[in-house]
Amino acid sequence: MTTSPFWVSAFLDFAPGGFDRGVAFWRGVTGYGLSERRGPAGEFATLVPSAGDDYLRVQALGVGDGRVHLDLHVENPTHAAEAAIELGAHVLVRHELGYVVLRSPGGFVFCFVTHPASRRPAAATWPDGNRSRVDQVCLDIPPSSYDEEVAFWRTLTGWDHEPSVAREFARLHPPDEQPLRWLLQRLDDEPGAVGAHLDLCCDDRAAEQARHEALGATLVRRHEHWTVMTDPVGTTYCITRRKP
Q1: What integer pLDDT is reported at residue 1 of this predicted model?
Q2: Based on the domain organization, do 129 and 103 belong to the same domain?
Q3: Do residues 236 and 137 share a domain?
Q4: What is the DSSP letter of 15?
């Protein structure tokens, strides 16, 4: 049975006290609605697009710093988890509801789930005519674990690997119908475990930056091809010049 995910969802995990502000910001960024909260403590919810299947979710953490983790949608989470273990992952939770929480060889948290999805939402169009969408996840990988981590995800997903998009970037190529592109970034320093951040595509990067700042975001730095931002609760993300 294949471990290649037929869909990938990104979870924005907010540190204690940051859930309401974080959710309000990302609803503004995406234009998506919010599902009813679920989980034993109401810690989970979904950002719901007006058309297409959801792929962005939110979690209120009980402890720890905010982060991004991924849900890989597969036919059989148990079988997929066993394959991931053979590749060097470690199981954190086997939940009675059927999903499995794991940590990659480099320390990145992800889950295998079964929820069906297949329709990628379109980009949102804003009053000024600018379009944007969260369209990419970037794994931020320390240099000491880069080769092992890339090999893990290449084998687990079975996706094509483009090794040299730029000096510090490589790419995995999921099927075109999936909602998130995958970028692999080799960091310059050793921050600890592998992390991740989200990227947006847009028609007008300056206009998109201004819209986000009006929602409470902060500019970190501007590069030639992307702009680094933080949301009101400190989540780092990027606005890129890729067209939707």
Answers
A1: 53
A2: no
A3: yes
A4: P
